[in-house]
Structure to design on (305 residues):
């Protein structure tokens, strides 16, 4: 099994060069809030080498000017769609330069129930997404699973709970595929999945009204169920771990054991996945990516590779 390994990097030449030195099959752009400001004229605001140094495969939507992730339900309910159009423009630009399709990754924290109930929002998502896929013919989109809540210590408000944390994403993807076929897929972030399992296991264990023992699929948050639910629709896996509560610097960390890497790659193999992996790892210094190199070595040394 030879899987492609992508490296996540911001629009910084030095960071991309470091990922190239570390070794990767392609780059996933980690767009930051600066792109929300400069994305309208990205070819003039970023060095050309950013786009031409290494094969670009994926573009991840950025945080907005307020530091809020541009989730699909937030993006498409706004009047101004220029931020998401700029992401697609960047992806199309890279696709034309490198001569292959490029994937746009976007989070979603809406449940499938709400997705179907919020008829006006759903219809606008379908209409505007259809226009984007028409206007940018070499760009596909994939929706990424999130964690049960969004929490940043520096924010003045309480944690925001999220509904779209498990089978919601595959269900939304299957719904959209009826209109857009394979141009829509999912992204399985194993860090987000593991955090969801941790928090939901604690919640469910305190719910004495729920069945004990074997859980029905709809409330089974095991990693295996994630792989099963995304089987056949997953376009990319975000490969990383977490520590403690999983927030801040404890999010997107390097794996602490080869066994955990092996367990994930076994599920990848058992469920017939063939999509790439993006090593999405936090570093103390992104010009010396020691954690990326360690994770890449663990993948290469896995008995399931």
């Amino acid at each position: 099994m030879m899987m492609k390994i992508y490296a996540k990097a911001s629009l910084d030449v030095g960071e991309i060069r470091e990922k190239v030195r570390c070794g990767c099959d392609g780059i996933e752009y980690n767009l930051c809030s600066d792109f929300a400001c400069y994305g309208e004229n990205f070819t003039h605001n970023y060095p050309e080498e950013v786009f031409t140094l290494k094969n670009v495969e994926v573009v991840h939507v950025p945080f907005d000017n307020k530091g809020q992730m541009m989730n699909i339900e937030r993006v498409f309910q706004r009047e101004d769609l220029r931020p998401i159009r700029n992401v697609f423009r960047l992806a199309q630009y890279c696709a034309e330069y490198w001569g292959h399709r490029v994937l746009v990754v976007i989070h979603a924290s809406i449940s499938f129930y709400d997705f179907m109930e919020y008829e006006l929002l759903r219809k606008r998502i379908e209409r505007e997404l259809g226009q984007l896929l028409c206007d940018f013919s070499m760009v596909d989109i994939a929706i990424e699973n999130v964690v049960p809540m969004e929490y940043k210590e520096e924010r003045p408000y309480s944690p925001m709970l999220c509904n779209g944390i498990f089978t919601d994403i595959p269900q939304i993807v299957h719904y959209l595929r009826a209109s857009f076929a394979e141009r829509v897929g999912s992204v399985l972030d194993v860090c987000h999945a593991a955090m969801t399992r941790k928090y939901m296991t604690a919640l469910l264990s305190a719910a004495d009204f729920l069945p004990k023992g074997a859980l029905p699929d709809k409330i089974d948050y095991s990693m295996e169920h994630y792989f099963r639910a995304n089987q056949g629709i997953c376009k990319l896996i975000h490969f990383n771990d977490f520590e403690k509560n999983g927030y801040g610097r404890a999010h997107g960390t390097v794996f602490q054991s080869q066994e955990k890497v092996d367990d994930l790659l076994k599920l990848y193999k058992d469920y017939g996945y063939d999509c790439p992996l993006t090593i999405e790892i936090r570093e103390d210094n992104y010009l010396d990516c020691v954690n990326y190199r360690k994770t890449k070595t663990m993948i290469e040394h896995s008995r399931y590779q």
About this structure: The first strand starts at residue 5 and ends at 9. The mean pLDDT is 92. The radius of gyration is 19 Å. Residues 32 and 62 are 5 Å apart (CA to CA).
